[in-house]
Known about the structure:
Blueprint: H1 3-18, H2 22-25, E1 31-32, E2 43-46, E3 54-57, E4 60-69, E5 78-85, E6 88-91, E7 104-106, E8 111-112, E9 121-130, E10 138-146, E11 153-164
Parallel strand pairs: 3-11
Antiparallel strand pairs: 1-11, 2-4, 4-9, 5-6, 5-10, 7-8, 7-9, 10-11
Amino acid sequence: xxxxxxxxxxxxxxxxxxxxxWECAATTTVYKCDSNNTQAMDGVTLENCSVPRCPLKRNTTxxxxxxxxxxxxxxxxxxxxxxxxxxxxxxxxxxDNKSVCNNIFTADGAKTTCPLLKGNDYVYKDIxxxxxxxxxxxxxxxxxxxxxTTKKIVACFExxxxxTD
Length: 165
């Protein structure tokens, strides 16, 4: 192959690679919560959150997916979602303290609901609304699933974010 042909191939490859939507391919880093949680996270997916300081655009939605293994039997499961604003936990309206039994799937994708059984793998899927009333600022978001009766954490992560227009 001539050097001219090789140059053309390399040029075409670099153009093709530059067209890959990196935002879809990359994921942002989420951090394990500081708690007595012994559950190791299997995976967290946050839609359109591929850069540090995950952008949360007001008046939009974000798909959230959390894979977890239940370490105990769970009758009900609720969210605990808040942002640290000046080191004060501020609950996210419409997201915090809601029952999510209808948002649970088995590991193979079948819809299920509570109760959840110890030792089984599950996936929580939800669509979170980023409300217009949220102030534009940088926050660290705490997102956990927990048993409302025992207060035991089922799954938990934290992610640096910024609320934008």
